[in-house]
Amino acid sequence: MATNEKPKPTYSEIAEVAGVSEATVSRVLNGDERVHPDRVKAVKKAVEKLGYRRNRIAAALASGKSRLIAIVIEDDLGLFSDPFWASVSSGVSKVLMENELQTLLMVTASNQVDGPVAHYLEGGEVDGAIFFQMHKDALVKKLAKQGLPVVIAGSPHKDAGLAYVDTDNYGGGKQATQHLFNVGCKRVAAITGDTGATAGRLRLDGFVSACKLNKYEVPNSYIAHGDYSYESGRDQMTKLLAMKERPDGVFVANDLMAVGAIKAIRDAGFNCPEDIKIVGFDDSMLAQTSRPELTSVRQDIEKLGETVANLMI
Amino acid sequence: MATNEKPKPTYSEIAEVAGVSEATVSRVLNGDERVHPDRVKAVKKAVEKLGYRRNRIAAALASGKSRLIAIVIEDDLGLFSDPFWASVSSGVSKVLMENELQTLLMVTASNQVDGPVAHYLEGGEVDGAIFFQMHKDALVKKLAKQGLPVVIAGSPHKDAGLAYVDTDNYGGGKQATQHLFNVGCKRVAAITGDTGATAGRLRLDGFVSACKLNKYEVPNSYIAHGDYSYESGRDQMTKLLAMKERPDGVFVANDLMAVGAIKAIRDAGFNCPEDIKIVGFDDSMLAQTSRPELTSVRQDIEKLGETVANLMI
DNA sequence: ACGACAGGTGAAACCGATTTCACAGACATC
DNA sequence: GATGTCTGTGAAATCGGTTTCACCTGTCGT
Question: What is the DSSP annotation of B52-121?
């Protein structure tokens, strides 16, 4: 180990071997058109021969571009355990990698977002940031204003000119709800996500729209408010079940809550889907694997991640 | 924007304000003991005043330490969709962040691991690498030999002196199997994971051990070999069900397969757990949310991630 | 033919820290 | 009082690329 020196070729060596200057080496490696073909060939040959590998750190320092994209996730509710975001991350990472970009994963408690994460992001050592279902608009806007490319996966609270990618929340909610009517439900209810956020509101809007379309008037009490967590799904469903006129079909704004809702139904001694039908949102692995199988609106998750990444690029 | 210049303080400015040299600034910021308290105070004050933020990239270049740890995941089977790994990642990221380290997420198809990923890792721009259930021992060993700190989450094929962290596969397998005997199963079978890998083998060993303990001789045909995927769980279970003497209890080496197995059982017209009992391994969100609830051996997943990260540090 | 112009090229500055090295003083030793 | 540590400190080199800028060609226009 000690005796075996590592070559670790640098520009200067390549330049020497190829008989050109370091500047030219840089030009070739960065695809500058204006270099004479002969030299391009010479440099490439030297690179090949020496097994050169560019040092991204040095490059980053000199050029001011780190080629690093951060993924920021709030993990209060075990959010990242939701296969949905994991899949998105996966898609993002793949696409970025194909584009010679690195993915920085920042999982953090939401109350700490303003601390280390903000600190880091503002430091300008990242070329872009992708936020997952981020509720702290302030930070995002601030970063965007600083000129940092920002993409939000999942809708931001208000469309403040921020780039975002999301699944079709409105259409999905509508479609899911329509499904309930199609299978004959008469008393349709909903368990919403965080309606303070765009995504949650749109899903609810879709629900309401479908109800109108079916000339069905939703009682206010039939709209229960959850927060996307398993527990909230369970609890809200329990509340719905306790009503005199129980709903016979429920649109739940994400799969995690839907599974919680099913749990509540079973615990209360009812059957799903015989007594009460549940339709979720996401069609995650969760929906596919839970028993009884959960009907869910499909979302092309990895594709979403890929779109996010491409948008970033 | 154009008119508003960003200060972006550097060492030289701090040095000037504090009336010391850049070298001293560096020493203070890196906690060098040998600096006179007065200057330390002066520097800290200047840092505060200017709102200085260290440029990690420059630091990385100069010191040769990138403070970046890579997480490498093969994503052939939608592995990352398995909440298990997502949770581990989450734990890793949190701990690393607390230690001022960044997490680089590299999701890649396993046939591409040797390409870009290996290339990158060998480039030495990462201070360490964490592999998730990596089967390519060759690459891992090579990196380790190059002096790169490597930790494997999940057991490596052979214990080649590589650091690894894993759940108690043997104990878990044993415990899970024992549970089947405890609830009265007479014909106990297993669906294994990849027994070519240590984790899979150990879980099976635990199973066998528990069988011996209960003086139960497992028929060879009762040991079905899966590959941790949902499909394989389903298919292997179907195989088991087709036997003349059906098992009445099955230990399945992970939850994903277990859910697949339950699916197969239901599809075949049986009930779970009435007719056949299934016990999984991981106790992931999957186990908690699927219906009927899947009995599973608990694994403290985030803790695992944290352990991995700490080991790396 | 001669200045203008454009394409190529290399020397050197630069990015922002870290780290080596040499050198003052303060203090102890003989 | 001369010599010898030990501390604390700053100037300068360094990390490995990128980028500016000046300059040197050869070609074109007239």
Answer: ----HHHHHHHHS---EEEEEEE-TTSGGGSHHHHHHHHHHHHHHHHTT-EEEEEEE-GGGIIIIIHHHH
